[in-house]
């Protein structure tokens, strides 16, 4: 670039230089220059480019050094840009966004070095803007008539977009599991390079704008710019090389381990991706999320893998999921990160709201170079205490708290004593000089105290005592180091409400904070009780969604967390609405809660990472925000459950709350681990310290909860223990999409059940003629598709309705996933078409791309299919057309066809077809002919069948089509039959087709029974496939492959909808396994033993329906379950926190029923005749039959005392009516007994077994001990009976 300027420009520049030399910098500009010097020293030169140099390796060396100092340098840069922004406000928007993006990375729990390297390129670009500090007047026109402000304003728009994109790229990349990052590193390297190159281009543009602007001090500015930009060409070239080296050398330890694993395999990466066993090993090596609690179910069973973003936190990352994520394009990953924009905007707002408030205390200016460290303390009281005690940079937390107590106590006493002296001296007429001295002492005391202190704050002094110092120590000592620094003191006082005095603020932490915790405890319990009540009226379609949320480990963690709170009963009688002490703090508490609520709404309740948690809750220790945050998340859950009473929820609706709770629990667990480390370092008993810290709430965050009074509180009491009078924040709507109320809409659009969208069935007429026009594909087609290495979903039937001269085809059809349309193009013998389903699958639009070869007779098509947005193409190994002879399908015997009249055959003459993966930057175009609109952000790229647990993943599937109606494939004999006797097989084909036509026009019980059996088995296998997370039993897989060949596509779709309908209603007791047979998960009925589970939180004895019916024994540790024990029956998921009150209700119900039976027997004994039914007797609430003795069930849910006979309960279990309901239980009848009610058993005499039967249930150790005791007793008896004889024998032996 030329540096020559016109004479007029040089004269103008000379005048500007002279003006700048005579200019006196203001105080703000001096501060800016000082900060600039700091960042210059931090960078090592005036301005250092990370891509500067002759080779990328040199730049990488600089980046490597800067990564370790990223936090320090970036904070300095943000301060400098703040000062530049004050001088030149037009760059403030870019600075704010830069700070927001950088703060997201600074507050992240763990940072990938590659992400840090990308952020350094952003810092490098923004650092160029610091040269604006040399610009005196940014609005002064330059040589071309444009001012530097005008030029940069034109450029800032694209800079802002690049900053946003960089932040989103970093956030999305950080959320990828390690295995996905490793296998997609090439894709992400390209995206990082693209963003880094944009920053380099922006930097070049900024330098150009500054260099041609003559109003800058040219002598200084040009030297600096020359140092910055050695060669723009080298910079642009080195960015790509730099990122290549960064991705190679900055791998995490986990990525290096995966690289070593891949390098051992012949075939490298491709071989690993095709090997399920190796991928399982890769997933096993993947680093799991932090926290012990989330890896355990209710009984302590370990779960390992981390879920993908967007999945439920309890989901397990499978090989299928891994392949699917690897196959995703980076742009699709960015599009899937839907909640990032809200998080980024919330962070920007938070950055903009941060204002540094400096309190000027009279004429005293706080400066670090004055007499002592205390000069840096802002608060006057703390300043005086620190100065009087002579402390340096830090002090023991206990010493500071005790000094504060003495300071306030002594100050009050000294002021009173001085006032008494003045009053006495005035009365006695003593020397006025003494009175003046006393007045000065009082004034000195007054100057030392907080100006906000008022007489009415004297109440606070009584709470600054030795007995209450622990919570104040916790408030001051944020890092639990036992020492309080000046920074911590200033942070403590800066958080004080504006109108509160320091004593008021201290009293809040010594007494008011405990009130706050107890108040939130009761409000959280109320929210849980309200969720319990709202769940009863939820639509059956939402039953499983709510049950999965209630049984999730995140909700169990909340229950355990709350169980540690001590002294709960002492606060039960507090009137939270009118308590005078609580009202002194309530305004601040409510204001803080509303602030968190606004932040939660800003991020749409999605807390996906630690940096988002900081946006929502702010800085500081978790104790400050955990209680209101948990409450607000549960209240959001309550809102969703209430909506579930009228709306069919999306399957992932409540998983958003689970994910947010997950991040919160991780933060708490990290805090507890820090506390444990400090306790160990100080040789303190951790268990005792946890009981003291934060009022005991951390006692069971990492430990197993123990039984206490917390578990005995019932939901009715919780619902009424406190009134929730806190108004929800109602921010003004900022757009048409923003709600005007405090409750945001649901995360996902209301769902519609698949069975409600079933289209009218269509059947191909097997006898209808097929067009035979030359080069036309119009007609009926049928076939199948499979997933690479696995069976597909069944047969496919569709009709091509149009095929024009240009080769374009249009058609429609149906398969197991529902109706679909096809449109594509036939070029010679190569067909490419798009298959788009009309019904959403799991809320997503499904689109697949098919590419295949058409046989010369235009009656067969064979090829591959895959996602429309992935880079793959169909490759034919041999340049040979598909023969008109016999062709074998890829999908099994039932779909194998032949040419004119054969169904079987070999692959003779068939070219081999495979799929090639195109490189990311190959630039090759696919031979596809479809609108780009189909590949938009409507979810089309998420191909596959999410509901069956199978997705396209990294591999592609195959397909086979034949110009025949689907009835043809359904009637085909097997290959073996054709090979054995071809004429017989053809006759069988004709007979089968005729039989199907006849059966379709008549009904018989045999046909209906066979179809019912087939339907039930299909539904059962489909459920197993959904629950197996992609790994199937071999025998079941074979049965599935055979079954789907025998079912018409219309039936497949209908039966699949029925299966999905039932799966939304079927309850799984997650984390519960049968203690007799080990069956897991338990569904739908759970039997829990009261006798064996009393005083237990998690270690309960549970049986499945089969083991309960078989009266099996069970053991757990030292407990032995006997069939004679009373059992609770649950057909709904029950909150653990309310399980023990159910035990009490069960005992009362059993006692009542037994009493009624005794009264009935006594009445029968004194009466000789019966006059109608016995009013004291028991009768089944369903069949109304009389019950005179056990066994029977007592209902704990019915308003009236109700008993149910065993026969009626077994009948309900067999019918499984809960799988077919469309309305909530409350609307089914008029409040009578139904299947969902909780029952307790009164077992009959047939299960009261003998001692011999009880012996079988004893543990091996107890049985051995009992045998040893019997042998010892027998031996003692023998010795005692034979002792005289033995004595005589001994005496004879001696003689």
TrEMBL record:
Residues 1069-1135 form the ZZ-type domain. Keywords: Metal-binding, Zinc, Zinc-finger. Residues 289-311, 723-742, 883-949 are annotated as: Disordered. One of its GO terms (molecular function) is zinc ion binding. InterPro entries: Znf_ZZ (IPR000433), Znf_ZZ_sf (IPR043145). Residues 918-940 have a biased composition (Acidic residues). This is ZZ-type domain-containing protein. It comes from Lentinus brumalis. The lineage of its organism: Eukaryota, Fungi, Dikarya, Basidiomycota, Agaricomycotina.
């Amino acid at each position: 670039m030329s540096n020559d300027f016109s004479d007029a420009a040089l004269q103008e520049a000379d005048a500007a230089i002279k003006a700048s030399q005579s200019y006196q910098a203001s105080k703000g500009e001096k501060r800016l220059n000082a900060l600039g010097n700091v960042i210059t020293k931090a960078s090592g030169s005036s301005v250092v480019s990370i891509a500067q140099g002759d080779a990328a390796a040199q730049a990488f060396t600089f980046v490597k050094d800067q990564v370790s100092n990223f936090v320090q340098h970036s904070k300095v840069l943000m301060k400098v840009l703040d000062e530049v922004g004050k001088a030149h406000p037009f760059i403030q928007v870019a600075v704010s966004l830069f700070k927001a993006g950088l703060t997201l990375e600074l507050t992240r729990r763990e940072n990938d070095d590659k992400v840090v390297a990308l952020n350094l390129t952003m810092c490098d670009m923004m650092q160029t803007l610091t040269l604006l500090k040399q610009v005196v007047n940014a609005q002064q026109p330059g040589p071309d008539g444009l001012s530097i402000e005008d030029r940069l304003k034109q450029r800032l728009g694209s800079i802002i977009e690049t900053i946003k994109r960089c932040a989103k790229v970093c956030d999305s990349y950080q959320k990828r599991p390690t295995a996905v990052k490793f296998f997609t590193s090439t894709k992400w390297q390209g995206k990082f390079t693209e963003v880094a190159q944009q920053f380099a281009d922006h930097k070049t543009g900024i330098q150009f704008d500054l260099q041609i602007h003559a109003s800058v001090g040219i002598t200084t500015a040009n030297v600096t710019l020359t140092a910055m930009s050695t060669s723009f060409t080298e910079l642009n070239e080195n960015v790509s090389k730099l990122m290549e080296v960064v991705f190679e050398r900055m791998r995490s330890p986990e990525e290096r381990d995966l690289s070593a694993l891949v390098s051992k395999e012949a075939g490298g990466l491709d071989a690993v991706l095709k090997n399920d066993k190796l991928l399982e090993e890769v997933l096993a090596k993947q680093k799991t999320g932090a926290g012990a609690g989330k890896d355990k179910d209710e009984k302590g069973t370990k779960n390992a893998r981390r879920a993908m973003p967007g999945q439920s936190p309890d989901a397990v990352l499978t090989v299928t999921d891994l392949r699917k994520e690897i196959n995703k394009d980076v742009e699709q990953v960015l599009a899937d990160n839907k909640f990032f924009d809200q998080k980024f905007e919330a962070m920007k707002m938070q950055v903009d709201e941060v204002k540094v408030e400096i309190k000027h205390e009279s004429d005293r200016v706080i400066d670090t170079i004055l007499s002592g460290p205390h000069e840096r303390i802002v608060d006057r009281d703390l300043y005086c205490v620190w100065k009087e005690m002579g402390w340096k940079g830090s002090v023991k937390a206990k010493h500071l708290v005790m000094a504060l107590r003495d300071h306030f106590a002594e100050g009050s006493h000294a002021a009173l004593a001085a006032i008494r002296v003045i009053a006495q001296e005035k009365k006695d007429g003593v020397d006025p000089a003494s009175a003046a001295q006393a007045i000065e002492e009082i004034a000195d005391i007054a100057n030392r105290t907080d100006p906000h202190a008022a007489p009415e704050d004297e109440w606070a002094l009584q709470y600054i005592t030795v007995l209450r110092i622990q919570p104040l120590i916790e408030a001051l000592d944020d890092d639990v180091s036992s020492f309080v620094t000046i920074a911590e003191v200033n942070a403590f006082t800066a958080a004080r409400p504006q109108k509160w005095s320091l004593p008021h603020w201290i009293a809040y932490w010594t007494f008011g904070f405990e009130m706050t915790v107890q108040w939130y405890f009761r409000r959280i319990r109320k929210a849980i009780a309200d969720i319990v009540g709202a769940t009863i009226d939820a639509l059956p379609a939402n039953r499983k969604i709510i049950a999965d949320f209630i049984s999730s480990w995140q909700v169990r963690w909340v229950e355990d967390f709350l169980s540690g709170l001590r002294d709960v009963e002492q606060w039960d009688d507090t009137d939270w609405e009118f308590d005078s002490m609580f009202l002194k703090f309530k305004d601040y508490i409510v204001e803080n809660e509303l602030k968190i609520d606004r932040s939660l709404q800003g991020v749409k309740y999605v807390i996906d990472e630690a940096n988002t948690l900081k946006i929502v809750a702010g800085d500081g220790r978790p104790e400050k925000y955990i209680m209101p945050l948990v409450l607000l998340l549960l209240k959001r859950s309550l809102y969703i459950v209430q909506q579930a009473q009228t709306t069919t929820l999306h399957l992932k609706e409540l998983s958003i709350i689970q994910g947010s709770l997950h991040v919160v629990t991780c933060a708490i667990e990290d805090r507890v681990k820090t506390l444990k480390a400090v306790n160990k370092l100080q040789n303190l008993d951790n268990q005792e310290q946890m009981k003291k810290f934060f009022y005991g709430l951390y006692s069971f965050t990492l430990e197993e909860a123990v039984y206490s009074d917390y578990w005995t509180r019932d939901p009715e009491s919780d619902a009424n223990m406190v009134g929730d009078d806190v108004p929800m924040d109602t921010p003004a709507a900022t757009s048409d999409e923003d709600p005007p109320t405090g409750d945001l809409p649901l995360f996902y659009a209301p769902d519609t059940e698949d069975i409600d969208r079933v289209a009218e069935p269509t059947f191909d007429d097997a006898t209808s003629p097929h067009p035979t026009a030359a080069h036309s594909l119009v007609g009926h087609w049928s076939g199948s598709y499979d997933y690479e290495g696995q069976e597909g979903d069944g047969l496919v039937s569709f009709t091509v309705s149009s095929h024009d001269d240009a080769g374009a085809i249009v058609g429609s059809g149906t398969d197991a996933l529902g109706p679909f349309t096809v449109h594509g193009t036939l070029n010679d013998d190569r067909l490419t078409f798009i298959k788009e389903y009309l019904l959403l699958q799991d809320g997503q639009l499904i689109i697949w791309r098919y590419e295949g070869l058409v046989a010369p007779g235009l009656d067969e098509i064979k090829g591959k299919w895959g996602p429309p947005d992935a880079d793959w193409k169909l490759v034919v190994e041999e340049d040979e057309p598909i023969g008109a002879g016999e062709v074998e399908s890829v999908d099994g015997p039932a779909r194998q066809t032949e040419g004119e009249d054969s169904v079987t055959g070999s692959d003779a003459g068939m070219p081999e077809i495979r799929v090639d993966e195109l490189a990311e930057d190959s630039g090759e175009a696919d031979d596809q002919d479809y609108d780009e609109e189909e590949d938009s952000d409507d979810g089309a790229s998420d191909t596959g069948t999410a509901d069956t647990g199978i997705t396209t993943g990294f591999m592609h599937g195959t397909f086979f089509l034949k110009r025949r109606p689907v009835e043809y494939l359904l009637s085909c004999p097997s290959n073996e039959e054709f090979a054995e006797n071809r004429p017989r097989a053809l006759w069988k084909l004709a007979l089968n087709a005729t039989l199907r036509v006849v059966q379709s026009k008549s009904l018989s019980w045999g046909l209906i029974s066979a179809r019912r059996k087939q339907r039930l088995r299909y539904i059962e296998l489909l459920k197993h496939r959904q629950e197996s997370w992609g790994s199937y039993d071999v025998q079941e897989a074979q049965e599935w492959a055979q079954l789907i060949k025998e079912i018409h596509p219309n039936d497949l779709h209908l039966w699949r909808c029925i299966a999905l309908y039932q799966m939304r209603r079927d309850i799984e007791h997650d984390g519960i396994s049968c203690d007799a047979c080990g069956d897991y998960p338990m569904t739908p009925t759970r039997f829990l033993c009261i006798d064996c589970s009393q005083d237990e939180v998690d270690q309960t004895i549970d049986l499945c329906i089969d083991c309960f019916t078989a009266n099996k024994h069970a053991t757990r540790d030292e407990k032995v379950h006997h069939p004679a024990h009373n059992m609770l029956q649950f057909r709904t998921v029950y909150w653990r926190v309310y399980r023990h009150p159910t035990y009490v209700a069960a005992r009362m119900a059993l006692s009542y029923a037994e009493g009624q039976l005794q009264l009935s027997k006594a009445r029968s004994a004194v009466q000789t005749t019966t006059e109608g039914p016995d009013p004291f007797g028991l009768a089944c609430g369903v069949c109304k039959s009389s019950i005179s003795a056990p066994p029977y069930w007592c209902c704990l849910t019915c308003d009236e005392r109700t008993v149910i006979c065993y026969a009626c309960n077994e009948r309900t279990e067999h019918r499984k009516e809960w799988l077919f309901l469309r309305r909530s239980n409350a609307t089914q009848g008029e409040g009578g007994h139904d299947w969902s009610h909780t029952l307790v058993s009164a077992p009959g005499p047939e299960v009261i077994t003998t001692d011999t039967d009880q012996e079988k249930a004893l543990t091996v150790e107890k049985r051995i001990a009992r045998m040893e005791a019997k042998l010892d007793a027998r031996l003692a008896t023998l010795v005692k009976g034979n002792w005289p004889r033995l004595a005589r024998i001994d005496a004879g032996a001696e003689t």
